[in-house]
Fold:
Amino acid sequence: MKNRLKVLRAERNWSQLELGNRVGVSRQAINAVETGRFDPSLPLALKLARVFETSVESIFELESGD
Amino acid sequence: MAKALPLQQALKYFLLLILAMVVLYGGGAVSGHFVASPSAGLRWLGVAVAVVSLVPWLGFIITSLALADEYHRRIVLVGTAVAFVVGLLLHVAFNVIVDAHLVSPTFSLAELPVAMGVWVLSVGLTLLYYRMRL
Structure:
């Protein structure tokens, strides 16, 4: 699953730690999601969409193999 | 650990760890004393003490899971599943080793330290796997 988390975070000039604090997870969790090593749960995806004021679909996108 | 904890919560967590370690160690010693008793009732009490002394340690693990975020919780759960399988293989292997007289029949595995070691190792390896996989 691809995601635009890093781009969205950079646009707001937020660190991984700051984004993690905003959605209630650790910096490592944000890093794992950004690098595609961990797919977030639906509640976390919704929280991420809320802090970026966008939809889940505009952050996360299925790849052909998914 | 997942998130930054408030100081009071972190202190409670730390105290739970100390309590769990003290009860685990102390419970084992008390249980050993009761189990060696000639009275069957006291020996049963020794069994109960040995089992109950594990409860705070399990509570510590559950608290750790509750405090972790979903990423770390996944790592611990996968690591625990791996530890279960490794523990089972180790147990079977050890019994066969004894049956094959490759070690003395009186030799026994320290079940609890081995289980804890296997769990820590499995969680550590799972953490490495999640950090390194692409």
